[in-house]
Fold this protein.
Amino acid sequence: MKAFVLVSGGLDSATVLAMVVKKFGSKNVFAVCVNYGQKAEKEWSCCKKLVDFYKVELLNCDLSEAFKKSTSTVIKSSGLNLIKGDFSEEKSKSHGSPWISSYVPFRNGLMLSFTASLAGSMFPNTDIEIFYGAHKDDGKTGSYYADCTEEFIEAINFAINKGTYGRIFVRVPLKDMVKSEVVKTGLQLGVPFEYTWSCYDGKEKQCGECASCVLRKEAFSKNNAVDPAEYMEQATKIEVVVPETV
């Protein structure tokens, strides 16, 4: 059995990578890092640090062509500014659109399909599991990211499994966890969160104000844990003592 993990450099995929390496062993795990034209180019260096830490093979992939005309605020070529505040704030400013401004059209579907083709080509006679870090907060009733919902997960797993003669499966180990539970799990596994990047923006430090940054800070706060990220506004950084029980 081989395992492929979509690694974005964020908290969620770092936690999934730790879980998968623990289960399969580093020699059987491959980290897939995707360029999709995102503003947050720091994700790539974080991916490299995580891959080196867990001693798995890194596969860099470029899917940016698919999103060159996207109006998502996280895509560099869109030229649009991120909305400040949490996801509910972003949703309130969607002006009746069924998706929020940071949604990238079918991004996870494309990444998972691409990875299935890549994995099947590399190991044509081997059973394979593909992992990605969607969690409960991402797919809330489909109003945030439709490609993180339970319905999407079931559908894409069915399609990929059928399309690969029953050999490749999609696994989403965080799907029933909220962000604070993801951080708790990562802390228990010893994930090097100092190597992670959550911000949607492409600045030198994490902005601390976009929905992803807000959710990150809240998750560490709920665990009474130190968030090792550097933010543009240091006053917003949460620094509290990690309890021994975590």
Q: What stands out?
A: The two ends are 31 Å apart (CA to CA).
